[in-house]
Amino acid sequence: MPSGAPYETHTGAVYFKHITASEADRRIRSAFQQLVLQIAPPGALLLDLGAGPGIDARFFAERDFTVETYDVDPAMREFLAVHCREFVASGRVIVDRSDYREFLARKSLLCGRPADLVMSNFGPLNQAEELPELFAKLHAVTSSTGKLLLSVLNPFFLGDMKFPWWWLTVPRLLRDGYFFVPAGGAPPHTRRRLAGFKAISSPYFALTRVFRARPPGGERRANGIDVSRGGRLVWPHVATSRFMFLLFEKRRV
């Protein structure tokens, strides 16, 4: 998070080494992966949006899912193709190498069938532009019962409240529902309240549940908080989580 130190860009092999070295990041990834396993039907087609170096793509390909991946960064895509090379060769992992405008414009997946679940881990939507177009795209490429599971940065994370920059953003967050964080200790990104994600996605998807980024204890199923009727308990539930996982269900348009 922004703390005065300049942000250092990590991509490809450098990013892979960086993000796998942190135990906290490994736990967050594990929590997300376990939640995907709870939600996705066996053998489902997954779209990995903001796939990075392919850590999640490989995890799910090893568990008999088919994964189509997309990332805007060419270095990430090339590392992913090597990291998942045997699954790319077998067709279990499909790598989309198009630029972002081309990706948005295309109304089908490269594999030729709709995704059962779109997953996006470690906050790609916090850096994405043209979110209404992105949700329209995801609606077009998902099945009639398709879902989205999106990991996004929590604008009310307690750990950020020790920094002066967070308090400077509060008026904007309360007034407009979002704030922009310039490059500092993290890449530049936008954080939104749940109402913002609801409004942007509402023509295409309904935000139904919110989960904190923590592995469930033992074999207990993670149920999250139901936000289909308001979800007043969401912020106390996720306050200690840097990321929160948002589950969307497809609307009929």
- Average per-residue pLDDT, rounded, comes to 90
Task: Quickly give the CATH architecture.
Answer: 3-Layer(aba) Sandwich
N-C termini distance:
38 Å
**Structural class computed from helices and strand pairing:** alpha/beta
Q: If you compute it from the alpha carbons, what radius of gyration comes out, rounded to the nearest whole angstrom?
A: 17 Å
**CATH fold name:** Rossmann fold
Give the topology string: H per helix, E per strand: HHEHEHHEHEHHEHEEHEEHE
Write a concise keyword list for the protein shown above.
253 residues, alpha/beta, Rossmann fold, eight-stranded mixed beta sheet, two-stranded antiparallel sheet, globular, disordered N terminus
Topology:
Layout: H1 12-21, H2 23-39, E1 45-49, H3 55-61, E2 66-70, H4 74-83, H5 85-90, E3 93-96, H6 100-105, E4 115-120, H7 124-127, H8 131-140, E5 142-153, H9 164-176, E6 178-181, E7 189-192, H10 194-201, E8 205-212, E9 225-226, H11 234-238, E10 243-250
Parallel strand pairs: 1-2, 1-4, 2-3, 4-5
Antiparallel strand pairs: 5-10, 6-7, 8-9, 8-10
Fold and architecture overview:
The chain is α/β, with parallel strands linked by helices and 253 residues long. The chain has a single domain (12-250), classed as Rossmann fold (3-Layer(aba) Sandwich). The protein contains 11 helices and 10 strands. It has helices spanning 12-21, 23-39, 55-61, 74-83, 85-90, 100-105, 124-127, 131-140, 164-176, 194-201, 234-238; strands spanning 45-49, 66-70, 93-96, 115-120, 142-153, 178-181, 189-192, 205-212, 225-226, 243-250. The protein has an 8-stranded mixed beta sheet, with helices on both faces. The protein has a two-stranded antiparallel ribbon with strand order 6-7. Helix 3 (55-61) links the parallel strand 1 (45-49) and strand 2 (66-70). Mean pLDDT is 90; it is low at 1-7.
